[in-house]
Amino acid sequence: MILTIKKTDSLKGELSVPSSKSYSIRAFIVASRGGHSTIVNPSDGDDVRVAIGVAKALGVRIKRKTPRLYQVDALRNPLRIRKINVGESGTVLRFLLPLISLYEGKSLIVGEGTLQRRPNRYLIQTLRNMGVSIKGKGAEERVPIQKLEGRLRGGCVEIDGSLSSQFISAFLIACPSLPKDTLLKVTGKTVVSEPYITMTQQILKKAGVIIIPKNRFGFYIKGNQKYQGLKNFIVPADYGLAAFFLAAGTLVKSRLVLRGSFNDDLIQADGRILGFLRRMGVKFTQTKQGITIMGSFHLCGGNFSLKDCPDLVPIMAILALFAKGPTRLSDIGHVRMKESDRMGDLTQELIKIGAKVIPKPDSLVIHPQPNYKEGCLLDPHRDHRLAMSFCVLGLKVGVRVKDIECIRKSYPRFVRDLRGLGASLR
Length: 426
What we know:
By secondary structure, the protein is an alpha/beta fold. The chain has twelve helices and 23 strands. It has helices spanning 21-31, 46-57, 90-100, 121-129, 165-174, 194-206, 239-251, 272-280, 313-320, 344-352, 384-397, 414-420; strands at residues 3-5, 10-16, 36-40, 60-66, 69-74, 83-85, 107-110, 133-137, 142-149, 155-160, 182-187, 211-215, 218-221, 231-234, 253-259, 284-287, 290-293, 299-305, 323-330, 356-360, 363-367, 376-378, 399-401. The chain is globular and about 60 Å long.
């Protein structure tokens, strides 16, 4: 489906920011490990629906008490896992692979769409080093992935932290159930998306599981820990999804109120958007109940490291198109392995409107232009964050966006909410 976004003079109104996809997925997966959990206000995106399905496959009883409240009870005798479809969710896939390796017997993990292009070689090699016979498709070990035999062993384990924080989080979730203690050593020149690792640790702590950091590049995980459930866990509002409306309110005349439970005790990498906006010259007010922004603003370019918040790359690139002076988005080489190649594909599409975007091995440099082409058809490459960012771009220049339905991955009602604020969408 193609969505047409016309140039918009102004936006006004209130909306409820969706709940965090990352916390929702972690909540259901960690809840599957043991105990009783009540998960309040989870995201309704496709990836979270996949996480719920995977939790059930792992032997969990999930009851939806109200539209926004789920009761989760882990069974003492997990079901025998045969075949699980993880849809297009890379996070769920990476969390699942060590978990199925806790059990004897064969399993088959299949996926769909963009997930079929995403590599898993380093994670699968680590599982092999830990005693599991497992194989994916081709040299990059893509889905479908078959686990043949063997069970995960503890001990000293190394995992490359320069590629994806999801690999590290996956072992932090699985290794407490092993009979032996585990020393997880993180290798590589850097660790990307560190806040997501902290996010995983926070959820585990709520379930009664202790992870002991040895230093910035290692974790000690005691074996035979008992997951005690998450009790009553309220999923916070998603800063990454709020970022699209904050950007919209920055670029056009606006008066927007973004309602949501912004609980800063629960870390979110995408909360960096607030600091980035302030550095660019944007003003807003924030409370625990929401954020109010009244635009538009004259923006300043600059150098922004997005090492820990790769999901902000697309919307920061859109803001940079309208800033004064060039903008460098640095430390982002790892975004090439997201739902799309968020460097190459983003550059390719922005060039269509006449943007000057210079990709480098680990950064994008964006030089604002006085005018951009209107009405261009942009392809988000099935990446929900590209699609929503292009919609924000359309408010300024008017664009058409292919495959808009890919936003269901994280924000099914995005188009409806944007229209409700006064955007002209067709």
